[in-house]
Amino acid sequence: MNLKIKYLYALCISFMFTAQSGFSQSKNLPNLKVSKNQHYFVTEDGKPFFWLGDTGWLTFGKLDRAGVDTYFQNRKAKGFNVVQVMVLHNINAVNVYGDKALVNEDVSKPITTPGNNFNNKEEYDYWDHVDYALEVAQKNGIYVAMVPVWGTNITSAKSKVTKADVEKYAKFLADRYKNRTNVIWLNGGDTYGDKFQDIWNAIGSTLKTSNPNQLVTFHPFGRTDSSENYHNASWLDFNMFQSGHRRYDQDTLPNSFKEDNYKFVQRDLTLKPIKPTLDGEPSYEGIPHGLHDTLQPLWKASDVRRYGYWSVFAGAAGYTYGHNAVMQMFKKGDKPAYGNKLLWNDAINAPGAGQMVYIKKLMLEFPYLERVPDQSLIANQGEKYDYLIATKGKNYALIYTYTGRKIAVNMGKIAGDKVTASWYNPSNGQKTKIGIFDNKGIKEFQPSGKKEDGNDWVLILASNK
Q: Which one Pfam family would you cite for this protein (predicted)?
């Protein structure tokens, strides 16, 4: 094909997209892939990608175009680079404009119309609105991790969805979004991985086989992990666990990791083949402890920080934050779930949402791909909220305390005869130098403030050059 023909062909494709979508496509984001060491994500050109996600589950159905614009612009400003969304919350899904997603609630029959002119009701359909949201996300540098169909639609006793249905539906999704580099797939959707495996394997296999460059994982039920059922599935590129919304004392499940979400990471990284893993749904900010009893205390910003640092320092490839109001995109007139009283467009500025960027900045401040967890750094490890967790590279070490308790460090674990020690404040990203120390023996470091839950700090040790 000569250059002139190539140019005309590209121009034609661009025109077709513009005519169909009603807006011109922005520059594609780079494809994501698993790093060579199989622990993390990188862009197609090898740059580290720290997954900083938000759960905007009902974005496609609840937000109009102005709301989509506001939401993704806000998330970009706060440093988020992934948003997790349901494509179909229910099989009777209808968006804010009254557009149904499916014919007669049949997942094998999506309703599509010719064209994508927002000003023409006959052209703008449910899937065009999804296209619009994906385009807005792309313009804001955000990848969208999409759940094809929420798990309850499959597991309900009334469900009539078959394997053949989901294969057709998954092929529709794969074909429609094959050129979208900012699409990631979350198979499942808050569901047990050991049930309806024929359905989930069919969806995962169809998506991965059709579009091998798009990452695929499984979003499981609370206190469970994709690795428990799908670690060796050919379609699963990385693991995702849901550490859930219950306190230590509220969790009576046998063999549960309870609030210790770092244990999912520690377990997953012992599996073969090695795959990245991350917490895709910890306790949401602003949601009651235990989820359903609205008289319980609400999880706070410090709690979502703890889940983030615990899991990431254990070796996770990123972290997904969530807020009660934002995950359900709560608007005036809605029936609140889980005791929520905030509007989504106010809750997007909750304290925890603004603090998540500091974990991303800290991780990317140091050589990222060489980073490993190393609990041997800690001489006084502790348990539950007093648990200390450490990660390091060749020339740096990071240790997190949630309660501001004294940290006793086994020195000599990183390079250099001397190290510079600093405190890092997870709530505002501020760094305070402590001093220079010999890199040997056991050294004790005491954060400021009294010992209490939420007085969290990161101790930074950096090799002197």
A: Collagen_bind_2
Contact predicate 117/19, CB 8 Å: no
Inside any domain, residue 62: yes
Q: Which of 365, 396, 424 is the last residue of a domain?
A: 365
**∠ at Cα 226 (176, 327), nearest 5°?**
65
Residue 428 forms part of a structural domain: yes
Query: Does 413 reside within a domain?
Result: yes
Distance CA 320, CA 218 (A): 14
Please tell me whether the peptide bond between 273 and the residue prior to it is cis, using omega within 30 degrees of 0: yes
Q: What is the pLDDT of residues 236-265, one digit of tens each?
A: 999 999 999 999 999 999 999 999 999 999
In a domain, 338, yes or no: yes
List alpha helices for 179-300, DSSP H. 197-210, 227-230, 262-268
* Cβ-based neighbour number of residue 46 at 10 Å: 12
The span from the first CA to the last CA of the chain, in angstroms, equals 54
Q: Distance of alpha carbon 71 from its chain centroid, rounded?
A: 16
Residue whose entry in the numeric block shows the structure tokens 């059922």: 229
Its pTM stands at: 0.94
Check the CA dihedral 65-71-76-82 and report its sign. Answer: negative
Instruction: Mark whether 303 and 394 lie in a shared domain.
Output: no
In the sheet that holds 51-55, the strands lie side by side as: 216-220, 183-191, 143-147, 82-86, 51-55, 318-321, 277-279, 239-242, 224-225
Q: How many domains would you assign to the chain?
A: 2
Domain boundary among 300, 332, 365: 365
Are both 408 and 264 inside the same structural domain? no
377-396 residue pLDDT tens: 999 999 999 999 999 999 99
Residue 216 CA, chain-centre distance (Å), reads 13
What pLDDT, in 10s, does the model give residues 396-451? Answer: 999 999 999 999 999 999 999 999 999 999 999 999 999 999 999 999 999 999 99
Q: Which residues span the domain enclosing 385?
A: 374-463
The phi, psi pair for 82, rounded to 5°, reads: -140, 140
Angstrom distance (rounded) from CA 53 to CA 50:
9
CB-based contacts of 16, cutoff 8 Å, min separation 6: none
Contact yes or no for 167/149 (Cβ under 8 A): no
Are residues 464 and 437 in contact, defined by beta-carbon separation less than 8 angstroms? no
C-alpha 79/C-alpha 360 separation (Å) is 8
Return the SS3 of 10.
Answer: helix
**Cα–Cα distances in Å, from 446 out to 191, 403, 405, 408, 432?**
42, 11, 7, 9, 13
Q: How big is the chain by its Cα radius of gyration, in Å?
A: 23
